[in-house]
Specification:
Layout lengths: L5 E5 L6 H13 L6 E5 L1 H10 L4 H12 L1 H7 L3 H14 L8 H11 L11 E7 L4 E5 L4 H9 L8 E2 L5 E4 L8 H7 L5 E5 L44 H21 L8 E3 L3 H6 L16 H24 L1
Helix pairs in contact: 1-3, 1-11, 6-7
């Protein structure tokens, strides 16, 4: 008889990666140990951190990593850093506004592996090949290069030239939630846990996820709902760069949703609650205004953990019926 494995898919979402960490804590506390991880952008960072040691203690260290002010400054550079980057980019005709070296140093310090193959748990990192215009799913290769590439929003961070010679950028351009890559590796008895932490989720299902508009009673991914309707927050930040980044978020959601939707019907797939579900269930009072809003990191971790634990109880109860 085939042994069931746990495959964990972690999508990108910037600051909302903290909510995803809460879900990982809930899985760890329930004894769900990942046998393979698939990550993109912020989800790739979370996956790499956990893949080196897939334990509850390591998941807690990951939560502490998100709470650290140094990590937040790297993941969401402030206005002054952006202005300096713009000035430098115009002066040197650079291909990005920000230096990727702080992000690379952050990865090297906290993950401690040189190649994907060195990690304790198999990890697949998704990037977008800028030359080919397609998603690439890497299960081996230079870890720091791959993680930096997976997080490199075009124009904000420079593209990364990977072995093979092609330039790669953020995997979320075409595949922010690498569910298809996970299903390609999954056996018939495996369980595929999916956490999409983007503010505009591509894994939402009408009538199931609070983030997706629908008629009829409001639900929240199996959680008891207290709110009538999810209204996405509005980012208040201004400037040309912010408009470009918001447009990227919208384009990502549209481009990704069509490819993900048919995969959600696969019986092996289990979609963890989204931040909208936690809000609808009364577990989160303030939702970040966008992927660069790091003011609620601790609350996001707590809400992800609580909603994940409730969802697991609901999911297992439903399976037993």
């Amino acid at each position: 008889m085939a042994t069931s494995r746990n495959l964990v898919v972690l999508g990108g979402g910037g600051a909302l990666g903290a909510f995803q960490v809460g879900g990982l804590l809930a899985l760890a506390e329930a004894g769900v140990v990942p046998d393979a991880l698939f990550g993109c952008s912020a989800g790739a960072l979370n996956a790499a951190f956990l893949a080196s040691d897939p334990t509850l203690q390591r998941a807690q260290e990951l939560a502490d990593w998100w709470a650290d002010s140094g990590s937040r400054r790297v993941l969401a550079p402030g206005r002054l850093s952006q202005l300096r980057g713009m000035a430098s980019a115009f002066a040197s005709r650079a291909d990005a506004l920000l230096d990727e070296r702080p992000l690379r140093a952050l990865v090297s310090t906290h993950v401690g592996a040189h190649d994907l193959s060195e990690l304790a748990v198999p990890l697949t990192v998704t990037t977008t090949c800028l030359d080919c215009g397609v998603a690439r799913h890497h299960d081996r290769g230079p870890l720091a290069d791959l993680l930096v590439a997976s997080c490199s929003l075009p124009g904000l961070f420079p593209p990364v030239r990977l072995p093979g010679g092609h330039l790669h950028v953020d995997g979320g351009v075409v595949c922010g939630v690498p569910l298809e890559a996970a299903l390609a590796h999954a056996g018939p008895e495996d369980v595929v846990y999916v956490s999409d932490c983007a503010l505009a989720p591509v894994t939402g299902t009408a009538g199931v996820c609070a983030a997706v508009p629908h008629d009829g009673p409001t639900t929240a991914c199996g959680l008891a709902s207290t709110s009538a309707r999810w209204v996405p927050p509005v980012e208040q930040r201004r400037g040309a760069l912010d408009v470009v980044l918001r447009a990227f978020t919208v384009a990502r959601a549209v481009a990704n949703r069509a490819g993900i939707e048919p995969l959600l019907a696969d019986p092996r797939v289990r979609v963890l609650p989204h931040v909208a579900d936690a809000w609808a269930a009364g577990l989160l009072s303030r939702v970040p205004a966008g992927p660069r809003d790091f003011r609620s990191t601790a609350d996001l971790v707590a809400a992800g953990r609580a909603s994940g634990a409730r969802w697991l109880d609901h999911d297992r109860s439903a399976a037993e019926r």
